[in-house]
Amino acid sequence: KTYLAICNGELILNDKGILKDDLIRFENKKKIVEKAETRYEILDKNNNATFIQLNPITGRKHQLRKQLFNLGNSIIGDKKYNSTNNSKANNKNLMLHSYEIKFKINEIKHTFRATPPNYFRDTLKAKRLNF
Description:
The protein has 131 residues and is mainly beta. 14% of the residues lie in helices and 45% in strands. Strand 5 and strand 6 (108-113) form a beta hairpin. It is globular.
């Protein structure tokens, strides 16, 4: 799976790499710590926002949203994992897009892509980021 996201602020990371985190969740008041890994590639950035491609290796609940929140660069429009107090950054749409999925059936490779919606592309333009 490949996801595209627009994050608040400039991510201070290498252009490509792997995010590794221990994500905490609670189930019936019991604390559960899960390892999470995501491959990433920064597609464009400025001091205002970052456009990033994400490929989760593990599949934890809200993994991508939590990992970017932990870095201090939450996904624009994320009301649950929001690392900014800037009210202008509160977009009504979550800027996380499920872009591509690849899989094999009987040794035949299948790839499906979904073009980002207009509101996503409009946000890229408004943040002066290139797709």
